[in-house]
Every structure is written in C-alpha cells, then in structure tokens.
C-alpha cells in the first residue's frame, strides 16, 4: 500500500526473507480474499499492487481529484496510441503518421510520465520514444502484448486499395 509502482515477487521475497514461490502462493491466495472489500490486489506490469475496487472508484476519484479532471486531449491520446503501437519511434515519424506537429503533445506525454526517451535512431540521429511502465500501469496492462490488436479496426485489403486510390485522385 505504500509503493508508487508495482512490486515484483522477487523484491517481496527479498524483503520478507522467504522464497519467491512462497510469495507467489501467498499473493495468489490473497487475491480472492479482497474481492468483497474496498480494494483489490492485482498483478500489473511485472509486479503486484493494491488498487481501489472498481465499485468504489467514484468515491475514490472524488476524494483524490476533488473535482479536478486531468484528462488527455484527443491529440494526446492519438499520439500516445501511435507511440504505443510503433515504439520505439521518433517524433518525426509520429508527426508523419498523425499528419500534424506533435512537439507540444510529446512534451505533455513526457511530463505526465507516459512516454520517455529510448535511444537514438542510427540513420537520422533522431531521438526515439517509447511508453513507460507507468503507461502500462495506468492502462492496467501487464505488458505491451496485452494491447488490443489493431487488425480488426483496419479496412480489409480491398478497402485499403480504395482508400489509397481516393487519396491519389
């Protein structure tokens, strides 16, 4: 309850001076015991953490936010989606995909801890960006492989050809 990010089983085992298997068994036994309480224990992003129970979310949100909403704009969500699915990716590539300058949006995402620098692109020297573990935590994902597939939302090949043809006309 006092950690800022999920704690790994290895860290818990080390602190408690028990084996990792004992920690895993204890955590898995604890999960169902919290189902009818105000919080739940979840395995997220390679570690474990307590979260407020979804049934209590309205009360917790009101308490924490005190009427202040701090949501991402549509532009920030779109930029974050491009980074999440194409990472590591340069700012220029994100701008090209979105068709607009994303410099201000990128600063916002970095400031909020959702995106971070990852390295440098060899050919151009551009800084590459990727999502953070905080991004996974906020979305309730264990890893990037838990992101929903994009294929069901894309047009089929015939539809794509029609779209491309309409763009070149």
TrEMBL record:
One of its GO terms (biological process) is chromosome separation. It comes from the Bacteria. Keywords: Cell cycle, Cell division, Chromosome partition, Cytoplasm. The keyword Cell division applies. InterPro entries: ScpB_csome_segregation, WH-like_DNA-bd_sf, WH_DNA-bd_sf. SUPFAM superfamilies: Winged helix' DNA-binding domain. Coiled coil: none annotated. Transmembrane segments: none annotated. This is Segregation and condensation protein B.
């Amino acid at each position: 309850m006092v950690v800022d990010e999920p704690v790994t089983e290895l860290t818990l085992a080390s602190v408690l001076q028990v084996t990792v298997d004992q920690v895993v068994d204890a955590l898995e036994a604890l999960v169902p015991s919290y189902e009818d309480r105000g919080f739940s224990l979840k395995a997220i992003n390679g570690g474990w953490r307590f979260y407020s129970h979804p049934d209590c979310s309205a009360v917790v949100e009101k308490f924490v936010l005190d009427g202040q909403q701090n949501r991402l704009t549509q532009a920030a969500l779109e930029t974050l989606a491009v980074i999440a699915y194409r990472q590591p990716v340069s700012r220029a590539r994100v701008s090209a995909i979105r068709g607009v300058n994303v410099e201000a949006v990128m600063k916002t995402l970095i400031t909020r801890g959702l995106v971070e620098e990852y390295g440098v692109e060899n050919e151009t020297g551009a800084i590459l960006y990727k999502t953070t573990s905080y991004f996974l935590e906020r979305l309730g994902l264990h890893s990037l492989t838990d992101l929903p597939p994009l294929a069901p939302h894309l047009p089929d090949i015939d539809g794509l050809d029609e779209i491309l043809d309409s763009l070149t006309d």
